[in-house]
């Protein structure tokens, strides 16, 4: 059985929240291949010891690199703790990333509550579950 590839992304004000969430679900995260934008990935790796493939920082193209994984059907889930109260200079990239998740039917969680529900679902690590991918 191949591991799920999971992306972890957080805006600056949400990084502590994502880090706490990863700590709470570290046993599940250990069973996944993790990718992340640069700063977030470094923080998670340093604070948890988890192996994380790091892309560029979000504003420097990391969001788009993760978007490319989605478009290539190489990402199974996205956990993106974005900050709705602070505008980011790369908001168009953020919208594009969330849009790609909808286009390609990739599960995405933007809050700890949704992320909790997603990873505790019996379907999350199940090799039996295969989301339907659109055929364009």
From TrEMBL:
UniProt GO MF annotations: methylglyoxal synthase activity
Catalysed conversion reaction: dihydroxyacetone phosphate = methylglyoxal + phosphate
Cellular component annotations (GO), alphabetically ordered: cytosol
Keyword RNA-binding in record: no
Pfam families listed in its UniProt record: MGS
EC number: 4.2.3.3
InterPro entries listed in its UniProt record: Methylgl_synth, Methylglyoxal_synth_AS, MGS-like_dom, MGS-like_dom_sf
Ranges for domain MGS-like: 1-136
Gene Ontology biological process: methylglyoxal biosynthetic process
Keywords: Lyase
Class of enzymatic activity (EC top level): lyase
Entry keyword tRNA processing: no
PANTHER family, per the entry: METHYLGLYOXAL SYNTHASE
Family statement drawn from the similarity comment of this UniProt entry: Belongs to the methylglyoxal synthase family.
Function (record text): Catalyzes the formation of methylglyoxal from dihydroxyacetone phosphate.
Name the UniProt record assigns to this protein: Methylglyoxal synthase
Naturally occurring in which organism (per UniProt): Alteromonas naphthalenivorans
Phylogenetic classification of the source organism: Bacteria, Pseudomonadati, Pseudomonadota, Gammaproteobacteria, Alteromonadales
Name of the gene: mgsA
């Amino acid at each position: 059985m191949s591991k799920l590839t999971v992306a972890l992304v957080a805006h600056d004000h949400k990084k502590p929240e994502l880090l706490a969430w990863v700590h709470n679900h570290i046993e599940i995260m250990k069973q996944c291949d993790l990718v992340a934008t640069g700063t977030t990935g470094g923080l998670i790796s340093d604070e948890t010891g988890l192996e994380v493939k790091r892309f560029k920082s979000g504003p420097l193209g990391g969001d788009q690199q993760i978007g490319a994984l989605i478009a290539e059907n190489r990402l199974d889930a996205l956990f993106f703790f974005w900050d709705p109260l602070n505008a980011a200079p790369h908001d168009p990239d953020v919208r594009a990333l969330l849009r790609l998740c909808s286009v390609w039917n990739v599960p995405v969680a933007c809050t700890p509550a949704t992320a909790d529900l997603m990873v505790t679902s019996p379907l999350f690590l199940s090799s039996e579950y295969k989301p339907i991918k659109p055929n364009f």
